[in-house]
Amino acid sequence: MQRRVNPLPWKKVSPMDEKVKFIAAVCDGSVSITSLCETFGISRKTGYKWLNRYRQEGPNGLLDRSKSPHTNPNRVSFAEERFILALRKRHPTWGPKKLLVILEKDNPEITWPSASTIGNILQKRGLVKSRKKKREMIARSFPFQGYDHPNAVWCADFKGDFKLKDGIRCYPLTISDGYSRFLLCCKGLSGTKTYDTKKEFERCFREYGLPNAIRTDNGVPFAAGLGMSLLSTWWIKLGILPERIRPGKPQENGRHERMHRTLIIYD
Length: 267
What we know:
Layout: H1 17-28, H2 33-40, H3 44-57, H4 78-90, H5 96-106, H6 115-124, E1 153-158, E2 162-163, E3 169-177, E4 183-189, H7 194-208, E5 213-216, H8 230-237, E6 241-244, H9 254-265
Parallel strand pairs: 1-5, 5-6
Antiparallel strand pairs: 1-3, 2-3, 3-4
Helix pairs in contact: 1-2, 1-8, 2-3, 5-6
C-alpha cells in the first residue's frame, strides 16, 4: 500500500500558515467560501486561486509566486490620489464607480485608475466600512473522493469510550483504508487529545504511506472552530485533504461504521 512517505513537519513554522488555515476551514465545510474569504481578509478570486492550486499541486501550490513587475506603469500618482481623496471627502457616501464617473467628467485629460483601484485606495485610507454578510451554511466545499485504490481515502473515528476495570476510561481510535477496508489502527487511548492521536497517525503514515484524503466526523480532535484543528492543519501540510461528513450523516462514512459494527460482534 506504499504511496509516498515524506518527512513529517512536526514543529516547523511555515510562512504559508494562513493559507493552510484557510484550506482547513474550507475542508470543514461549515462556512461558505465567501464568508471565509471575508474572515481571512482576501478576495473570492484569491480564495479560489488557493483552493485550485492546493487541489492540483498539494502544499507546494500554496507557496508564494511573485509575478510583480520591477516597475508598475499603472501606479497612481500622488496628485491623482489627492484628487480622489478630496472628492470622497466632499461626498463621503459615494462609491468608487461614482467617484470615477465624476473624476473623468471633471478632468477628462487625466487617465484615471479603475474603480477597483480607487476602491483599494479608499480601503487603504480606512474610508470603506466592511459590510457584515450573513454566513451561509454549506454541506461541504469539496466532493468526497472515491475509494478507487489503496490510500485514496482513509477513514477515522473514535468508537465512543468506556470504562476499564481499573476505572480508567478508554477511547478507541480506529483508522481504516476505504478501498481495501484494511484496519490500519485500533488503539485504545486515554482521551481524544491531539498529541496522542497524532502519534498514531504518524505511525500509520510511516508504515503505510500517506493517503490522498482522510474522512472523519466533526468531533475533537479532527475538527475545531472553522475546521482549523491542529490535526487537520497538519494533514494539509502533508498534502492530505481532510474530508468532513455532515452532522447526523454517519452513512457518509459508511464503510468505517460497518467495520465498527463488526468489531462489536467479535468483541
